[in-house]
Amino acid sequence: MSDLEPLGPEHLQYPERHYGMDHSHYSWQMLTEREPVHWQQGKLALWVNVSLQYFPLNQRGLPFPPAGGMTMPYPDLRHYSLRDYGNRVGIYRILRALDKYGVKPTFAINGDLVQRTPYLMDMLRERGDEVIAHGWNMDTPHYGGQSKGLEKEWISRTLGSLRKASGQAITGWLSPGKTHSENTPALLAEQGVEYFCDWVNDDMPYRFHTDSGALWAMPLSTELEDQFILRNNLHSETSYAEQIEDACRFLLAEAQDQGGRILALNIHPWMLGQPHRIAYLERVLEFITAQQGVFSAPANALLKECAQPVAEPA
Amino acid sequence: MRSDPGFYDYWPYHERPRLTWPNGARVAFWVAPNIEFYELNPPANPHRKAWPQPSPAVPGYSIRDYGNRVGHMRQMALLDKYGIRGSISLSTALCDHHPEIIELCRERNWEFFSHGIYNTRYTYGMSAEQEREMIRDSMETIYRHTEQKCAGYLAPALSHSEETLDLFAEVGTELFGDEGGFYTCDLFHDDQPTPINLRSGKRFVSIPYSLEMNDTIAYVVNKVEPRRYGQMLRENFDRLYQEGAENGTVMCIPTHNYQVSCPHRLRAFEEALEYITGHSDVWVTTGREIAEFYLENHYDDARADIAVKNGSAQQEAAQS
């Protein structure tokens, strides 16, 4: 017999066992059941998001440490400086690669970077690419049980800094580590955010309900992230490129008869901006942009089309 | 606690009685899609955490939901293309949450077997009465929604008690007599079906399900590159096909729609399916059909041979 601590009756009770989801954030609907989207510019949208991040040296790691953060006893100079590398060196290689292939990215930026890297902020402002808020920094996660007041303050400070620095309305949000508290979506909606990129349960945008109005959930695959494939899974750079190319082939084929699709690539300058990796980003961008039916667009442009679907071309 | 669960006796993988499959096939090949529902906020089991973060654990929950929202239709299309009926390891609460998926699989005459109620409810800490009730609920739910008499079991999230297999077999008998509860996917000790020792003496078999070929084990635990996973599947098949010329084997690909159906992984999976089903002497089948055929045609010979092998080994040990 087991001598494990016994379970109470609640372990055989299922209060949410009913049709649809076990929560009220969105409706249950398979992708194939939805009205197909027809992009004006092609079949498959390439959306590249560049995440610009700040990992503080004095990381608290509460209630969990950020992926890619400090792992050694203080001061963990190796990880601090290697992440900082992305904002000093890697980003400039990435920009050059994006421009070479005519890719229109979004930049998801930690609010803390506004005062830390004003030169970079000015340059991005000049470029005019869409900016998405990426939380305050990588050590300020949104998490279940977090104080609502404090979370509201982090969101407000982040949006305020980025709106001022970019001159943009900032309607997109990407949480650090894609984690939430139970209040995150409603707090975002209250503060003028129209879409977030945190839930990885779809390949197309869908409506996400909150008590403060609906948001769009934008699909930004974690499985295809550079840092997930290379750092978490320890796959080779060649495999990274193959995986992106295979995903591109598959989604483009699916888009031929199921409606528009998005190939969403979240990349990190501290990862792909390394000298030995940048060529693999160039390789995948060259491959993707050479495909018939692929076009590049930032998130807000794609959402605009989803909000006002265009008729199927005759 | 026991040092050996006692489910099976040692049985060397050579000089076994010849196992044959229908139409002279060398390999019985089956695909077992796990169609699962993970709860956003399950009651906390003191022995295993469901999620790494406090609820809402968006990263883990949302990728699993992807499997149902997006992935299922992709895998089903591939299995249709290669003439494969899935043998579904089912979180049976999904019958309530997503009946559309159940209906699509039922129309295709896929098999449904029990994988518990939710994959966020673990067996650890359950009393025998609780585990029996959970298993009964799962088997009754499958019957109510599909009219299938559940034959197989894979414990939810592979969480077991010492009594799991006994309870499953007994509930199966109570509900369906000999037509229910007669095989398990929980054991990984062999590449052929094997008889399982239960306290009831019920004729019951372990069907090879393969942890190594499981996409989640490959991708999440072992962090295998997608194309290498495809290669592993083909090489696994090659050897089982080769050996199957002498003595029949079983190959299983356990899948999860949130892993294998991601856009960057489908190509490797499809190439493996095309390769395997492109061979002539393959019995493309389901877990239940393998178990039924084995019970009918091979179970008794296997029992006898196991007794002989263990008897002679014991005699030798006694004489030395």
Describe this structure in words.
The complex is a heterodimer of chains A (314) and B (320). Chain A is an alpha/beta fold. Chain A has a single domain (39-307), classed as TIM Barrel (Alpha-Beta Barrel). Chain A has 10 helices and 9 strands. Chain A has helices at residues 77-100, 113-116, 118-127, 148-166, 184-190, 226-232, 237-258, 269-272, 278-289, 299-307; strands at residues 44-52, 106-109, 130-133, 172-173, 195-196, 206-208, 215-217, 261-267, 294-296. In chain A, strands 1, 2, 3, 8 and 9 form a 5-stranded parallel β-sheet that branches. A 4-stranded mixed β-sheet of chain A has the order 4-5-7-6. In chain A, helix 5 links the parallel strand 4 and strand 5 (195-196). In chain A, helix 1 (77-100) runs parallel beside helix 9 (278-289) and helix 7 packs parallel to helix 9. Chain A is globular and about 60 Å long. The mean pLDDT of chain A is 96. With 320 residues, chain B is α/β, with parallel strands linked by helices. Chain B contains 10 helices and 9 strands. In chain B, strands 1, 2, 3, 8 and 9 form a 5-stranded parallel β-sheet that branches. Chain B has a 4-stranded mixed β-sheet with strand order 4-5-7-6, with helices on both faces. In chain B, helix 4 packs across helix 5 (164-176). The longest helix of chain B is centred in the N-terminal third of the chain and has 24 residues, at 58-81. At the A-B interface, helix 7 of A face helix 1, helix 3, helix 4 and helix 8 of B.
